[in-house]
User: Fold these one by one.
Assistant:
Number 1:
Amino acid sequence: MNAPIHPFLLQSDLAVLQNLLQDIKAQTASEWSGSGDHDHQSTLDKLGALKNEPTIFCSYDLKDLPLSKDEGPLAFLLQRYISWAQAIVRHPVDVVFLTHILLYFSTSVPSALYLYYHFSYVHGVCHWVMQLYYCGSFTLMLHNHIHNNGILAKQYAWFDHAWPYVLEPLMGHTWDSYFYHHVKHHHVEGNGPDDLSSTIRYQRDELLDFLCYVGRFLAFIWIELPIYFWRKNKPGLAAKAAVSELTSYGFIYFLARINFYPTLFVFILPLIQMRIGLMVGNFGQHALVDEIDPKSDFRSSITLIDVPSNRYCFNDGWHTSHHLHPRRHWRDHPTAFLKAKREYREGRALVFQNIDYLMMTYRILKKDYLYLADCIVPMGEQIGMSKQELADMLRTKTRRFSEEEIQEKFYKIGRN
């Protein structure tokens, strides 16, 4: 592993990464006991000490904020805000969610409204760029919302139910479609043959296959998802998925007929960029699929210890942990990973550092496997592999599965 350790990693990420690096050092020095527990408890203690620290802002850890009494009025305001926010969010550590909701309602909403009142191209472009900057953090906040039926305390359930309907279209989501596709579909199928966003039928390091993958989602998900639910004998979900998509499109069409240019920058461009972004991200999450056991969550998804995914997108890099336990709280992923480190190692899971999903997709499409090999944090038998061997191993995991292989691997229908 030759990738540098990013200085802006979350404290929890850094603790886990240092633990894994110690495993590598011990095994390389022939001091390996096989358990990987030489510093296990001390790392768990570090994570335990961070467990109840609230996250206020994505860009700052709690220790970096001016919270002591001798630091003036800003410290007083922050302390009052944290106390107030902790009474509103469901989990006291999730103050950052309320911070983001307030941010979006104080910037995106008035900006969008003003574009309809007085449109200018400069404002339109600036609004679009702002939404592009927001969309990653917003989507992963929404991701926590849809998996756990909300993020605010019960007494604020009405607002917890309402805010997505205001913010989703502004960020490029159609109403409720993320819930139906991600929770009711993707996590049920797990990148398998019936997953409409599955990567297994594509040669994942070929640009044409990638464009077909993204293009299919852009053009047909609105009809394919209801058809999927219908075929699975879930007519209620089929109807809801269809209504959510078509209602959203109808709303955007109605606004475009009234005032096209504001609608282009407020709704249409964010929708296109969000759909592309979702597929580029999902492609990176599931591009490396084990050729022997593609059904394994350890071998069909990856773990990233990086800044964009974990600091700014609420630990989205711990994707294998999320697939193992979709409702796990986002702050618990590093601890869960460390506790299950033996299973990750024996499952031949892939862990990377200092690379995000967008760059993962880009490097795979470039066939830059040596770069990816530098980013691997090897575990178990991977530790003894050379850089070229790691690169060759990664290359095998981007190969398209034939229909015969899919029948054999996923449905246990063997060859005659």
Number 2:
Amino acid sequence: RLVLNYKSLPYKTHWLEFPDIAPHLQPLGIPPNTQGKPYTVPTIHLPPSPSHPDGEYIMDSKAIANALEAKYPEPPLHLDAPELGRAEELWMQLLRSLVAVFGPKVNSTLLNDRSREYIEANIHLEGKPGGDEAWESARPLLEAIGVLLKEKGGPYILGETVPNCVADV
């Protein structure tokens, strides 16, 4: 939704609980992901076009951003910025190192019973360090993110213009 808002594109949000994602998306004829979970959110339905007369469904944030940038290039997301790949990798490493810190809190405070039960049955955090150990493993990643933000004078990935790269959103 951040990219849709940034590009001032109209959209409608359809909220789904975690156990309803696959049963909702599969009947729409969306091909499953080739890695990870077969059906995921976010998913977007782009309007009809000559190459897709019924519109096109796309899953995965990065694939969605690429499709929106191709179809609606202004304002630009700067998806070709070399800093973007570095920011994405650091962000994914940071999430992996802190999942045992924030995962249980998200489950217990933000999810309803159905989604919480689904996540607890399908996402396993055993063996992942939490607490101080997780924060210590995250320290070099946070420092690297700080360095990346300062490389172009910050406070954003590509400098001072807000936002000047999709990595900032």
Number 3:
Amino acid sequence: MESKTPPPPQWVIDLSTPPTPKPKSGSILDPPGYSSTVTAKRSAASKQQIRKAPTTSETDTLKLKKSWELALAPAKALPMNGVMMYMSGNTLQIFSIMMVFMLFKNPLQALLQTNQVFTRYETDGTRGKLWMVKGVYVLMNLVALALGVWKVNGMGLLP
């Protein structure tokens, strides 16, 4: 006896076949400001244009901008950390201790990994300009550490 496999369910057939294009009916008009002929011309023109490869100076400029964004990221976290430290209070509780621990741990890790963080942005063209970016990155992490020292002093743990 042969066992026949049952046909697949309708939803499997619907997913495996692409939908049939619906002809545009004359009763439905284009919305104001939309023209299908102009859109078709634009899409055909955009397919014909080929993007040229960026030059090394453009790539270096982009890498330098991205490295500045990365260097200023610790400064963007300072207001949030300051508010969290203020709101956690000055008493010795598990929450405030963990907050202070994280406030010291993250900048220290960032300081130790400064060169690894910026290796993807380092090229022959950006090497001379990257030292200032690294300096700002280190300075912002030192400010975050100073925030931790302020909190520890507020908790009464510093002599």
